[in-house]
Amino acid sequence: MDMEYDQAVDASEQTGPYIPEAGECMRCGQCVSSCPTFRLFQIDEETPRRRIRTISKVLVENLPISDDERHHLDNCTQCRACETVCPSRMAYGQLFDLARAQFQAEPGSLAKLAFKLIENKSWRRRLMPLLAIYLKSGLQKPLRRIGLLKKLGLAEAEALVGNPALQALATSYSARAAMRGRVALFTGCIAEHFDRDTLLAAIKLLNAIGYEVLVPPQQGCCGAIHQHNGQSAVGLINNNIAVFNALDVDAVLHTASGCGAMLSEYQADDDAAAELFKQRLQDIYDFLLKHWPDDLQLMDSTLNVAVHEPCSQRNILKNQQSVYALLQKISTISITPLADNQVCCGAGGSYMLTHPDNSGQLRELKRQAIGAAQADLVVSSNFGCAVFLSSDSVRVAHPLILLAGQLQ
Ligand code: SF4
Ligand code: SF4
């Protein structure tokens, strides 16, 4: 059996939840109907059960897998809905990452560049002004028209960039009420440039309830994109643990559920350091709810808001109810869950870039649910899902932006 797999199983037996071997799947099929790719293709090859069989070949039986098996495994969006219904408590996400790390081929030059950009903050800072010039240049329309971006596999990536913020955030933001403590904000790799409004909303809310917010500039990507694509995330994980553990703060808060899910499952060679990091890690919704002052009122709103629940929030963090509880602090607002929230929207981190056809079909299903909701606004706690689902007719924003906008 593979050494890395052995170690992961041993570690889980000592400290974490029970993680069965891939070969322990009972083939009961309870996971089948929860799988978004089964919804699309309606064939057994596109079920978690069949993928677990392929993973078992890789991790347990040391057997080669066919191109077809590899193709169907790669089609997985990594939503982990299957984990929530499996009676064997199959740790599908972890098993998938371990299997993919074994057979992942050397990434192509574009993928290598993307990994480097995610890893390296100074590279990203240098790229931002060039990106801003490109976005202002008017080149987008002709390039889209001749289909060059699509040919280069950049069409979906280009749609994500919006108007990037070029400057870094400040390293600290003082409380605007009587000071109650200090927290650190996890911003990760791209949020500072592309999801600045959410981070500023988080800071505004935390300052309003009496917390100073630190934004350590040495922090980096959570490592999810690397880990889920067969690359090592060890350097990124160790860096974040060291940066945040060195701070004198009451909590480390994340705003994007995709990053939060990865951070909450950090494992490192230094177990004690990883545990300390996870002990102080909290989702910002849970923190705001716990520390919300009795006398802090938000302005009323008559908006009809539909809530999209990202898979990382539903299936891993499992705290989607905190979003509803926090939004209810806006009196007179109407809040409804989006229909079929249990089905992945297709964004899936980098999945929308690597599998544009599958993700486009899943997005279409989600957009039908959004249309049926007839909401003024859709909120989603994951930046990737929000950008992926937004369109000219539908605005999808982070719930924190809505909440911060209602501060008096
Ligand atoms: S629900 Fe779990 S045990 Fe049943 S087939 Fe799916 S992965 Fe296997
Ligand atoms: S993670 Fe999601 S897409 Fe992948 S097998 Fe499980 S339910 Fe299907």
SSE map:
Layout: H1 3-14, H2 36-41, H3 48-59, H4 67-74, H5 81-85, H6 92-103, H7 109-119, H8 121-137, H9 140-145, H10 148-151, H11 155-160, E1 172-173, E2 181-186, H12 191-194, H13 196-208, E3 211-214, H14 224-228, H15 234-245, E4 251-254, H16 257-264, H17 271-280, E5 281-283, H18 284-291, E6 304-308, H19 311-317, H20 320-327, E7 334-337, H21 351-354, H22 356-373, E8 377-380, H23 383-389, E9 396-397, H24 399-405
Parallel strand pairs: 2-3, 2-4, 4-5, 6-7, 6-8, 8-9
Antiparallel strand pairs: 1-3
This protein binds iron/sulfur cluster (2 copies).
What do you see in this structure?
- The radius of gyration is 21 Å and the shape is globular.
- The chain has a 5-stranded mixed β-sheet with strand order 1-3-2-4-5.
- Helix 3 (48-59) packs across helix 6, helix 15 crosses helix 17 (271-280) and helix 18 packs across helix 20.
- 40% of the residues are buried.
- The protein has 408 residues and is an alpha/beta fold.
- The chain is built from 24 helices and 9 strands.
- It binds iron/sulfur cluster (2 copies).
- One iron/sulfur cluster is lined by residues 34-37, 48, 51, 76-82, 92.
